[in-house]
Amino acid sequence: MYVCVCRAVTEKHIESAVNAGARRLRDLRTQLGVTEECGRCAKCAKQCLEDAVGQQCAPDTHPTCGPVSFQLQEAT
Ligand code: FES
Asked: Does domain 2-56 have CATH number 1.10.10.1100?
């Protein structure tokens, strides 16, 4: 789905930007050009950014961003 029609930016572009370190709307503007033309994409781009960051930092997939579960092993 296109998030920014003016710059032809899709959700996949935003996911790639997040994987490359983008964490703020400003980062997406710098890297992809979102919001630089009409600005109508700002809300959707921010939501996609938050979703992509949330997926990347899900507790079970990224131990430094969420609780880590430990399994204790009995000493033998
Ligand atoms: S839709 Fe993104 S700047 Fe116009």
From this structure: yes
